[in-house]
Specification:
Blueprint (H helix, E strand, L loop, with lengths): L1 E8 L5 H7 L6 H9 L4 E8 L3 E8 L2 H16 L3 H4 L4 E4 L1 H11 L11 H15 L5 H20 L9 H12 L9 E4 L3 H12 L5 E4 L3 H11 L2 E2 L5 H6 L3 E4 L10 H9 L7 E5 L16 E4 L1 H6 L7 H52 L5 H30 L5 H11 L20
Parallel strand pairs: 5-6, 5-8, 6-7, 8-9, 9-10
Antiparallel strand pairs: 1-3, 1-4, 2-3
Length: 437
């Protein structure tokens, strides 16, 4: 088995494509099961955020795995595979390991160094665990990716600026509202993870008074209480829109929440001389496409943020994270090579035990006068001899297998001793190589 990572992000696709690819949380278990039901895919993890949709998979072949995953994504999104291919990036083997660590450390984020991706990866890992689509390879990859992300934030200043997609969006809003957002009335639509981040970021930025609305009133009220905001019933959304300058919309709705008619009604009721700036951080989009361009309305979505990436960390901080990633990639590849030879070593020891048992049966058949104590003595001696003979070679072959090019040793052992080693499946046990995330 080898690692394959396939996805689309703000780098390769616009919002129109990402919203078709996006996977609502309730649909993730079903899509995970569909992935591991494919002929070449044995393990799968799905990551779906506002600016990326990725599949991490353990596959038995590159081209077969690529075709299987692309077909599943094509069926889900309704985008023909030939068209979808132009928006996808593909990483295999070592490149897939490196990409996962770059993602977890924030190097591949729209806002470099943002920490939200760690929570998103953790949620994806848990979803795959609950769906039983993880095996030894992806369990270890996800654990190590989360640990690399924590190292990057703990040991470098990659997130010193405290940037996130929300802070980047607020920078854009400030450009349209005279540069200072202090005291600007604002509304957050959505009380999920991104909504909570938005309320927290707006509070730190001095924006206010703050209001929050959500389909579930209870969640909105809890979040409002935690940050000194006001919860607004979703039925009063149009009135709330007419009374604020900034809107951050981040719902999980599959249909636009801010329709043209709703926004036009709110704009007509506004008394503020300022434009209404809507920061649409949802994928699929919360603002209906036909509402963009209404007089007095400014809409900033993921496409707009991607086009104006800003506030990048210093080159020294980025280089420090890249160094961490490079070292961790080497460690993980060493573990992979060692893990590949483990079943072969186990098969060799099993073969040796079978030979010892067969010879013992022959011996005891010729010497029926042996007492039970004598039989046990002979058996222990034979087993000890075999274990001592195998100990040094198996330790050494594990060491050699962990080095670059070490994959040849497993194949050589299988050939020399005519070993039949079954392929690992996603139900295999999970060995540990480092601290848990």
């Amino acid at each position: 088995m080898n690692l394959l990572s396939i996805g689309a992000s703000y780098r390769t696709a616009d919002v129109a494509v990402l919203e078709r690819l996006s996977i609502p949380e309730p649909e993730i278990p079903q899509l995970l099961q569909k992935l591991v039901a494919q002929p070449y895919v044995s393990e799968a993890v799905l990551v779906s955020t506002c600016n990326r949709v990725e599949v991490y998979a353990a596959v038995s072949g590159f081209h077969g795995g690529l075709g299987d995953i692309c077909n599943v994504l094509s069926q889900h999104s309704g985008i023909p595979a030939t068209e979808l291919a132009g928006h996808l990036y593909v990483h295999y083997g070592e490149a897939a390991v490196r990409h996962s660590f770059q993602v977890s450390s924030g190097l591949d984020s729209m806002v470099v160094g943002e920490a939200q991706i760690l929570g998103q990866l953790r949620n994806a890992y848990h979803a795959a665990t609950e769906s039983d689509t993880l095996g030894r390879l992806l369990h270890e990859l996800m654990q190590q990716a989360l640990r690399v992300g924590k190292r990057a934030h703990a040991e470098t200043g990659i997130d010193k600026a405290g940037q996130s997609v929300v802070t980047a969006a607020l920078d854009v809003a400030a450009e349209h509202l005279g540069g200072d957002l202090t005291g600007r009335p604002a509304l957050v639509i959505g009380a999920g993870a991104m909504g909570a981040l938005s309320i927290a970021t707006l509070t730190r930025s001095g924006v206010g008074p703050l209001r929050i609305t959500n389909r579930s009133a209870d969640r909105a009220e809890r979040l409002a209480e935690a940050y000194g905001a006001t919860a607004v019933p979703i039925l009063d959304l149009e009135q709330a829109l007419s009374e604020v300058d900034i809107v951050v919309s981040a719902t999980a709705s599959t249909q636009p929440v801010l329709t043209r008619d709703r926004l036009r009604t709110a704009l007509a009721a506004r008394t503020s001389p300022n434009p209404l700036v809507v920061l649409d951080l949802a994928v699929p989009r919360d603002v209906a496409p036909d509402a963009v361009g209404l007089p007095g309305l400014i809409v900033v979505d993921i496409d707009g943020l991607a086009a104006g990436r800003r506030a990048a960390p210093a080159a020294a901080e980025t280089a420090a994270v890249e160094q961490i990633v490079a070292g961790e990639v080497d460690n993980f590849l060493g573990w992979m090579r060692g893990a590949e030879i483990a079943p072969t070593v186990a098969a060799l020891r099993t073969r040796a035990e079978e030979v010892v048992s067969a010879e013992m049966r022959k011996l005891l058949g010729r010497r029926p006068e042996f007492t039970e104590e004598q039989r046990a003595d002979v058996s222990r001696t034979l087993h000890r001899v075999v274990q001592q003979i195998l100990h040094s070679p198996t330790v050494r072959v594990r060491q050699l297998a962990a080095e670059p090019g070490g994959d040849q040793y497993a194949a050589l052992l299988r050939e020399l001793f005519d070993l039949d080693v079954p392929l690992a499946t996603h139900a295999d046990a999970v060995p540990e190589i480092g601290g848990k995330a």
